[in-house]
Design goal:
With 323 residues, the chain is of the alpha/beta class. The protein contains 14 helices and eleven strands. Strand 10, helix 9 and strand 11 form a beta-alpha-beta unit.
């Protein structure tokens, strides 16, 4: 993390200063407390929670509190909410915001999951800019925290309405906009388009965050150059390379650093989730080792294990032999 006392903020989200131009993107099932903490320490300029389903809050579902759990050093903390109706999102926020006390409140307008869009939430809201405007108007009237959003370019190629959506949310009090350069129907297929992000940056007065297909340090500089965005949001590429927030490409990370990070991340997962943290860690472990030529059977044996001691011994032996 940067020295926030000495440096001028890179950007302001409302009244919240952000020090740094790289941000970990919120990802369902990925950006939990352990991973957010790891990326924050490595240079992510702020922390955004996994989306919190407004229905879970209103129905007091036991799963949602862990999704917004955080440590003090994670701040600035953005609490991301997901819902399909303005009043529903507001009522969930009225319960949750006093508990969590986030610095920023983010509205999920970009999730492409079928389970989410089938109920009209996430990227499905892009179909109805008037509903989005109502959400922001209601949230702005009820909370002092800056309200932000993450969007896609539109529902599909026939409805690239990102300019209309962005105008609606800025006019109704949005303090920052993150933009993934794909439509909902693209999901993560094809190539992200950065030119629309440039359009938005030129047309809005609020900070614009670029997102999509940023995998390397060179990509960071390229998207900033092409779009003029205020900061860059990195998602899937960070799972196997959290060091990208320190502007280090994966092939430049020393094996010993990977070794110690794997063990520290596993311990953080076990501390946060208990025994089931091993299962949740599998996706991260697979990503950490994706760059190594490990025989398939050996890798499957490692990834299928639920024994933390076995995993630690395996990792220690593997990196000791590489030293």
């Amino acid at each position: 993390m940067q020295d926030q006392m000495a440096d001028k903020p890179t950007l302001m989200v409302g009244t919240v200063p952000i020090y740094g131009d790289l941000i970990l993107a919120p990802m369902d099932g990925i950006t939990d407390l352990p991973f957010r903490g790891l990326c924050r320490r490595l240079g992510s300029a702020m922390s955004v929670t996994e989306f919190i389903n407004a229905l879970d809050v209103l129905e007091h579902h036991p799963r949602y509190p862990k999704r917004h759990a955080f440590e003090p050093y994670h701040r600035p903390l953005s609490l991301q909410l997901l819902g399909d109706q303005p009043e529903q999102i507001l009522q969930a926020a009225l319960q949750l915001v006093p508990q969590v006390q986030p610095d920023i409140i983010d509205i999920n307008l970009g999730c492409q999951s079928k389970n989410v869009v089938s109920r009209g939430a996430g990227a499905a809201l892009l179909k109805t800019p008037e509903t989005i405007a109502a959400i922001f108007r209601l949230m702005r009237e009820n909370f002092s925290q800056p309200i932000t959003a993450k969007i896609r370019l539109g529902w599909d190629e026939d409805s690239l309405n990102y300019l209309e959506v962005a105008q609606a949310i800025e006019e109704n009090g949005c303090a920052m906009l993150a933009v993934h350069g794909r439509t909902r129907n693209q999901a993560f297929r094809g190539q992200a388009r950065w030119e629309p992000i440039r359009e938005l940056k030129q047309g809005l007065t609020i900070p614009v965050i670029g997102n999509g297909d940023v995998r390397t340090v060179a990509d960071i500089e390229r998207i900033k150059s092409i779009t003029g965005c205020d900061a860059v949001m990195i998602g899937r590429a960070a799972v196997g390379n959290p060091w990208i927030f320190s502007r280090v490409d994966r092939h430049d990370v020393p094996p010993q650093t990977v070794h110690t990070t794997i063990l520290a991340h596993l311990q953080a997962m076990l501390q946060f989730y208990g025994e089931r943290g091993v299962i949740g860690f599998r996706k991260f472990l697979k990503a950490y080792l994706a760059h190594d030529n490990i025989p398939r059977e050996a890798l499957l044996s490692l990834l299928n294990s639920q024994d933390p001691s076995f995993i630690i011994r395996w990792i220690d032996d593997y990196y000791d032999h590489r030293a």
